[in-house]
Amino acid sequence: MTGNNFVSNPSFNNETSNVYFEHASARRVDTNAVLIEAIRREYPQLHLTVSPTYSCNLLAFAASGKAAAAPIDKENDRLYVQHFSPPAKRLNGDTGRLIEDVKFGKFLFDWAGKEYVVYIAEGRDG
Prior knowledge:
The chain is α+β, with helices and mostly antiparallel strands. The chain has one domain (10-121). Helix 1 packs antiparallel against helix 2. It has helices spanning 15-24, 31-42, 58-63, and strands at residues 68-71, 79-85, 97-111, 114-121. Strands 1, 2, 3 and 4 form a four-stranded antiparallel β-sheet that branches.
């Protein structure tokens, strides 16, 4: 995964993450509309597809080994929350594990020989 084809518009460096965090800190109307507008400004030359994670979980698909995903944003432009996942059984010595839940992040996704810029964004509007 080279990422050479996905250089963002330098006049909007980190704009999408800035817009997300600004939008998330106040009353919201429509997170999708705000982010779509910011992504289109940052990557005007790319096609944009929006899909809900529950029906198209690209990070889970990559974790299965059928694709690859790597963060391409700066650490302070991300929002991850860690959750503890208890083991199904403790009798075998399993202690559970920590799971990272991506609330906002930008990834380079490599699938079938093509690279994609993927944003994961959770927004609770209202």
